[in-house]
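Notes from hallway chat w/ T.B., transcribed later so I don't forget. T.B. wanted the structure written out for a chain they're using in a teaching module, and asked if we could keep both sequence and structure tokens in one place. Agreed to drop them here.
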Amino acid sequence: MREDLLIPARHGMAVRLAYGDTVTIVNESGTQVVDTWAFCADDLSHAMSMEHSRVENGRLCAREGGQYVTDRREPILYVTQDASPGVHDTIMAACDPQRYINLGCKEPHRSCSCNLHEAMIAIECPIAKTPQPLNLFMNIPIGEDMTLIQGSPLGKPGDFVTLRALRDCIVAFSACPQDITPINGHSPSAVPLIIERGNVGAGAH
């Protein structure tokens, strides 16, 4: 069964996935970063961890055929397909209200952290903290002097990543509202999601 959803620009959404379900995140504009989190359905404190995933993958982000693990080093999401340049950030924290104050904003500004909590509350699964997200399609080059550069997007319209649930989980997304640094091409946009359900055993890793 297929479900087509749309995350409004600058907002978030959380979806429940059963083992074997897939979600495809479409970078329709080619420039949109999508902060992504995953929480175990039976214990929301047990969540996808970028720190642990970097160790298990031996690289900054998983390639197609790789997987992301939890803070207990248990598999949670498998990268079924990555039709993008394959550049995804696992270092930068989700933007939050203080980030925009630090950047000089005088008025309230939407943020990925707030989007996450709003999305989880909307499905009656509130959480206490904001874990480090998987920042899909986000380009953060590391300079020779170890500086972190807020890079411009590298993708093209229609790029996508498909993730398969390796356990029952809740996956949350934020169509990043950052419009001050160049990571979204200064133009945040909506993000289509395609969910395919009932695929247990159909290529699940």
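Follow-up for T.B.: Residues 2-196 form one domain. Might be a good example for the class.
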